[in-house]
Amino acid sequence: MGDVSRAVLGQIAAQQPQVKPNTSVVLKYSEADREHRFPEAFPGGVFRDAVRLLYRDPSLDGKIIRRGEPYSIGEASSEIQLEYIVVDRQPTIRMASRN
Fold first, then answer.
1. Which of 3, 30, 61, 80 could form a disulfide with 24 if both were Cys (CB 3.0 to 4.6 A apart)?
2. 3-state SS class at 56
3. What is the mean pLDDT of the chain?
4. Contact 23/82 with Cβ under 8 angstroms?
């Protein structure tokens, strides 16, 4: 797993140590970060699988969405929204909302 993947998942875990079952974890971004290869570092369903492994819960869903694009959380009972930004040239995750 690449540096940006570890950084993203580590920050998510630090900000949200526990997640309820059937939660959708949505990571939004405004622009692709070519320097750190985000979101390319999470192709296909890799982010979903990484979220499931991180919290050891196969009921979780994970999506990476460009800000403003429509999406659905499907059958999930709750949603956590996070935002990927670059601060001082470092990938940074910040909490956007929980419900």
1. 61
2. coil
3. 93
4. no
Written out in words, the top-level CATH class of the domain with range 3-98 is: alpha beta
Q: How far apart, in whole angstroms, are the C-alpha atoms of residue 13 and residue 9? A: 6
Angle between helices 3-15 and 46-55 (to 10 degrees): 50
For CA atoms 53, 9, 49, 99, the dihedral sign is positive
The span from the first CA to the last CA of the chain, in angstroms, equals 30
| The model's pTM | 0.92
Weakly modelled stretches of the chain, pLDDT under 70: 1-2
Sequence ranges of the domains in the chain? 3-98
Amino acid 75: pLDDT: 84
